[in-house]
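Entry type: protein chain
Record version: 2
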Amino acid sequence: MLIHTIQGIQEMIGGSLQLNGAAADQRVAGVSTDSRIIEQDNIYIAIAGERVDGHTYIDSASKQGAVLAIIDNEAFVTSSIATLLVEDSVKALQDLAKAYRESLDIQVIGITGSNGKTSTKDILAAGLMATYKVTKTLGNQNNEIGVPITLLRASKDTDVIVCEMGVENVGDIAFLNPMVQPTMSILTGVGAAHLATLGSKENVARAKLEIMDDLPNDGLFVYYGDDPFLAKVIDEKQDVPVERIRYGEQDDNQIQLTSFTQKDDMIYFTTSATNATFHIQTIGKHQAINALAAIACLKKLGLRDQQIQAGFDMYEPTGMRNEVVKIDRFTILNDSYKSNPESAQAAIDAFAGIEGAYRVVILGDMLDLEPDEKMYHKQVGAYVANSSFDELIAYGPLSKYYIEQASKIAPNKVYQHMDSHDAIVDYLESLENHSIAVLIKGSRGMQLDKVVDKLRGKYE
């Protein structure tokens, strides 16, 4: 983590410093924007959000051990803690991260994409861990606040940062690039996510392709070669002089998935890049494809197959993504963090590997797909209709289109629309089957993870 002095922080980002009894050379260590998780000697950065103003928690942060507060509201200068008054707290956080990143002689791998970026981040970080000291993005901290927090968590002896970078609009990655300064980057593909703001999949591709713009000449750009929308616009980046590696299942990829099997909660796969057979404790072919992107970077860093597998053995997924949860007679594939057509189809494919005598698919709305949201929900409904399931439970106003389409193709299945998490949990409990497999998939706004939590609470 960032370790400096109070005065040193001022020298890095400017601002008006009031020591309030503290010493200018007092040590600071680490940064937080959340007063609830302050650690001793932290810098607390007070950010005024839409619902909560972090300035109101300065005293709380001080009591928990913060020694410096970075603020942008003069009314909150307090005698309880040293304060650094800046014009904009968010920009100060970003400037601090940029200055700290520039002080590190380090590999930084940036990852973006409509689907799979978090899983790819976790797989890549695991592949590195047996050989290098690694800092990776925690959870989904991939925006203008989360990215600098990730950079500032790295220590001086970190070898590699694996940094997830999110996109909402054109220019988002271009804004983050000077801060992250990636030496390699991965684009996991283009999907229907963010069509409401970006308008077309080609525009989504252009927004995400910004991740290769600031790579050094000896850098590496790894991208999903099976993506037709990415293929349409990649030639627009011909003037970016970096090594490029395509991965996927098609024959023209430099790293191709050559075999895949799944047994219980373990996947086994081979690639055209090596003779080794790798395994990872997860499910779904899409995870093997995500691993191809990781392997491209790992090979660039000179790791041998044995080192890569030793790292893969340490794989720990981020919660609510392709997470297998066992609760009494239920085996649940919890993939409730987000959803769009591509990730929903991948989850349905992965669900085929979950064993259960009775198979229940729970699908919540996919958000931010305007103006074609109805069409995309029908497409996923058709996809699930051709999979192995006994019952489809729909949740959310748009989810009725899943049922509308699926029931036409597979009319003999059970279809229900439910309007609360409690109703879903009560219904699952009422099922008499001794072995029940459940897929839970929906956009984050649907909060379907609560179904897992409520069901767990019934049995634990």
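Comment: The mean pLDDT is 93.
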